[in-house]
Amino acid sequence: MTDWLSVSIRAALYADLMLCFGLPLFALYGFTRAKRQTVLPVRASLAVLAALGLALSALGIATITAGMAGVPLSEIDRASLEMVITQTSIGTAWQVRMGALSVALVCALIAGRRSAVPHLAIAAAAIALASLAWTGHGAASEGGAGLLHLWADIAHLLAAGAWLGAIAAFGWLLLRPEASMMPEHLHLLHRALARFSVIGSLLVGVLVASGMVNGYMLVGPMHVLDLPTTRYGQLFLIKLALFAAMLALAAANRFRLTPALGTALGQGDTARMVTALRRSIAWEAGAALAIVSLVAWIGTLTPPMAEMG
């Protein structure tokens, strides 16, 4: 039986840590130093996301302990919690995550106005996000193949976080009413879209390459035809379909909507393109969040290659 509370916490934690890393990272390369804090509420967002990550991580380790002990969440005892935290790999990863998120939170709170995107906070958020791989399927393999699988999992998480952060940033830029979409703001949006087009191609390459490694390690060629017959396989196929949809939307943004926005800016008629971009980003965000939810669910299931062992 699926533990929906655990899956929900995992999904929320994945989304939170991806945004905690990806949003300030996008601000770092997407805008000039003078525009970073005025365009996006980077420090405030980072502080909220880091604090939420700490809370979700605490709740997550409690649910894991309850699951291991076979008791309701309300009945876990301190000894069991301390044992999980101090004597398991899950607990070690949790300690690293809590420490990294604490660093990110402090950086966000003490950063001055001229340090809108603390580099140390981004690095700490990256470590917190990567720690999720240490408790997933990627950490279960052994030897050289296991190390490759773990690093592929970490690369996959970081690339996904960078992409989700960019989507959130574009959503923020497009949220304001059309009446307040001044030419300067639209030019800024267009430049940010153009800058992300190069980074986005790199992220897609990392996601595809790391996804192929993960797929080979977890599914294996001999189980591909069996995927539609198992719950793991069905969710895996839905995830692939959603990723393909995100690729199509990203390609439309890069090759059609972004150039069209540049043309519209020259002609002074941008309303139609802003509406199209809003719709595209909304669909992309929906697909991304659905994938995150599926990943959280899939992580609780046994992959085909593990069943062979």
What does this structure look like?
The protein has 309 residues and is mostly helical. The chain contains eleven helices and no strands. The protein has helices spanning 4-30, 36-39, 42-69, 78-87, 89-110, 119-130, 143-175, 183-218, 231-267, 271-298, 304-308. The longest helix has 37 residues, at 231-267.
Fold topology:
Layout: H1 4-30, H2 36-39, H3 42-69, H4 78-87, H5 89-110, H6 119-130, H7 143-175, H8 183-218, H9 231-267, H10 271-298, H11 304-308
Q: Report the structural category.
A: mainly alpha
pLDDT under 50 segments (min length 5)?
none
Q: Main sheet? A: none
Number of helices: 11
Keywords:
309 residues, mainly alpha, 11 helices
In short:
By secondary structure, this protein is mostly helical.
